[in-house]
Design a protein that fits this description.
Among the domains are: about 60 residues, 2-Layer Sandwich (Alpha-Beta Plaits); about 40 residues, no CATH class. It is globular, with a radius of gyration of 21 Å. It contains eight helices and 21 strands. The longest helix has 11 residues. Strand 10 and strand 11 form a beta hairpin.
Length: about 325
C-alpha cells in the first residue's frame, strides 16, 4: 500500500510499558510505523512553519543558509517536534543498510518487493499528449504530473503502472530515473563531504543499537553527532581532531537507545531517513494497522473520499 497524502490510519500504540513487556508492538523490517518527525531542532527563522529539509530540497542547502533576507537565521532548538509522521521501517537496530542505484539492501540482501512502491520515471510519447483521464485512472495525482513537453513527462509510478503505461498506444518509452553513484547531494544525511551520497546511493550504515559501542573519529562523527548531542542529551565538543563528550576526551561511544531507519514507499518524493538520519526509539508511537480515511486531493467533497481504500489493512 503506497503511503499517500490524505490517508488516515488506525495506530497500534506501543508506548505502554506493559505492551513492551508482553512482547506486543515490536517493530520489524517493513512495518509501517507512526513516529514523531525528527526534524524540529532545525528551522529557518523567516519560514518557521515550513520543513527545513523540504526547504533545502527545493532551494539547496547553500542558499537556505546564506540567503538571510528570505530565510533568516538557521537555528537549532533543543526539543524535536512532536508531529506524527508515517513511513515504512526498512531497518532495525543492528542492521546494515546500503542503497545502490535505487535498490535498498538490508544485511546484504535486496529489500523484498513491496506492493505500491513508486519511483520516478520519464515517459516519452510519439509527440501526442497523454490523456489526463488515463492518468487519473492510474491514480497519478495532478501535482505529480510533470510535463516537459507533449513528448516527455515525469511521473512517480508503481511497477504495475509502468506496465500499464507501456501499453498506451502513444507511449514510446518508460525509463526509471536514478542518480549516479558518486554524485553528491548535500541534503542527504549526514550532509558531510566524507559521505558523498544521494537519494539512490548511500551507505553502508549500521544502525545503532542500545548498549552497542562504536569507535569515534572525526571522520565518522557526522553520523553520530546528532544522536550524542540531541537524542541522548550529551555535551559534545570538537577541537581539531579531539572529541569531548561531557568534558571528557572520547574515543568511543555507547548508545543509550535503539535506532530505526524509515523510508517512504514513494522513493523519489519522500522526506525520510535519507534526509534526517536515524529515528530514536523514544520517537516511535506505534504501527499503522489499517486505513480509516483516505482523501483524493484532486477532487471536491464528497467525491474526494476514497471509499475503496477505507478500512483496508496496511501492508
Amino acid at each position: 500500500m503506497p503511503l499517500t497524502t490524505g490517508t488516515k490510519s488506525y495506530v497500534e500504540w506501543i508506548n505502554s510499558p506493559y505492551k513492551r513487556l508482553a512482547g506486543f508492538g515490536k517493530i520489524k523490517n517493513d512495518d509501517v510505523v507512526v513516529f514523531h518527525f525528527p526534524e524540529g531542532d532545525t528551522v529557518a527563522m523567516n519560514i518557521p512553519a515550513q520543513s527545513y529539509y523540504q526547504l533545502t530540497r527545493m532551494y539547496g542547502r547553500d542558499r537556505v543558509w546564506s540567503d538571510k533576507r528570505n530565510f533568516g537565521e538557521v537555528i537549532s532548538r533543543p526539543v524535536d517536534k512532536r508531529e506524527n509522521y508515517i513511513k515504512r521501517c526498512v531497518a532495525i537496530p543492528g542492521d546494515e543498510i546500503k542503497m545502490e542505484r535505487g535498490q535498498l539492501f538490508v544485511n546484504g540482501k535486496p529489500q523484498k518487493s513491496i506492493a505500491g512502491m513508486q519511483h520516478n520515471y520519464i515517459v516519452k510519447t510519439n509527440g501526442t499528449s497523454l490523456n489526463p483521464k488515463a492518468l487519473e485512472k492510474l491514480n497519478i495525482a495532478v501535482a505529480d504530473r510533470e510535463a516537459f513537453s507533449s513528448e516527455q513527462y515525469m511521473f512517480p509510478l508503481t511497477e504495475e503502472n509502468v506496465a500499464k503505461m507501456k501499453e498506451f498506444t502513444n507511449v514510446t518509452a518508460v525509463e526509471i530515473l536514478t542518480e549516479e553513484p558518486g554524485k553528491w547531494d548535500q541534503n542527504i544525511f549526514p550532509s558531510d563531504k566524507n559521505y558523498q551520497w544521494n537519494v539512490d546511493n548511500f551507505g553502508p550504515i549500521t544502525l545503532p543499537a542500545k548498549g552497542k559501542t562504536v569507535q569515534l573519529t572525526i571522520d565518522n562523527l557526522p553520523l553520530y553527532k546528532r544522536i550524542i548531542s540531541v537524542y541522548e542529551n550529551n555535551k559534545l565538543e570538537v577541537s581539531g581532531s579531539e572529541i569531548k563528550i561531557n568534558g571528557e576526551v572520547a574515543k568511543s561511544y555507547t548508545f543509550k537507545l535503539d535506532y530505526y531507519w524509515m523510508m517512504g514507499d514513494n522513493r523519489h518524493n519522500s522526506a525520510d531517513s535519507r534526509y534526517w538520519g536515524f529515528v530514536p526509539e523514544d520517537h516511535v508511537v506505534g504501527k499503522a494497522k489499517f486505513i480509516w480515511l483516505s482523501m483524493d486531493k484532486d477532487k471536491n467533497f464528497p467525491a474526494k473520499i476514497r471509499f475503496g481504500r477505507m478500512f483496508r489493512s496496511i501492508k
